[in-house]
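Figure S7 source data.
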Amino acid sequence: MQDKTHLVDEITGHRRMRRNRKADWTRRMVQENRVTSDDLIWPIFLVPGSGIVDPIPAMPGVNRMSIDKAVEAVKEAADLGIPAIATFPNIEMELRDETGSNSLVANNLINQATAAIKKAVPNIGIITDVALDPFTSHGHDGILSGGEIVNDQTVEQIVRAAVMQADAGADIIAPSEMMDGRIGAIRRGLDAAGHQSVGIMSYATKFSSGFYGPYREAISTGGLLKGDKNSYYINPANGTEALRDAALDVEEGADMMMVKPGLPYLDICWRIKEAFGLPTFAYQVSGEYTQIKAAAMNGWIDGDRVMMETLLCFKRAGCDGVLTYFAVEVAKKLARQA
Ligand code: PBG
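Tokens for the predicted PBG complex:
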């Protein structure tokens, strides 16, 4: 009679995966991916005024900040080694209108914040979004005309907004409104204005997702939005279409790609990285953040552990970095472990 060990060896052919997992040192030695503070991009929410740190109920641990407070927070992020932030404004309702005209005001909230942060924290990258949703009275990302989000007119406006954002000091423009032709148009607009070194991170594949809910609370567009964004964002069912859309952005001159939301779309991250080889980022969006926080607050999952695991999974899926509301929390944790 063979003993049991022998029996398993016959099946495995002596190939035992657990040899490399047997101790902490072997596990560290064979680990393929790691998360460092360099992988983190921190999205922040801005409000007018000063001295304001206003918690967002649907995003426990995330605040809307006035510019002075944002400057302090960004300083801390830079000290923790976070390479870049992404800014989103929650502007006064009175300033929102049909066309999002405040996006074309040179010293609007987002541009003021850029200038202030650039001055106080010159060693952190500033990524700005040019979508119109924070500025429109209907919460759509573009200009609404006859029940339609009109593509070309929206592109014209966001190009002008992008140039103003670059004038204010933005390092990377990240257009999230999914209009056709926007990347090429923004590139030409930036170059014509002398902003050759300002980059474009394309929200190449932005899906029409339920995971954006808490963000819409954060910038107060949730109650405004009429209808949905299905006529411009990508259907979550479509991977091949997403790749075609991303290919156009590459042709038009995107410097970096982004996939959004993140975790439910890791297949898209992998396909985009494989197909184009550009730096590829995932946006772990508000709803993804909130899911983890809510479950952790109920004691149903170990929030810290799941936070780190999700970020590692982005790396494994080929991402070069992640836009995440956890950025500061993660960077602090990594600093403690170092
Ligand atoms: C829209 C925009 C969205 C997010 C950032 N910019 C989505 C939307 O409201 O349609 C979502 C970010 C998040 O959920 O964290 N331009």
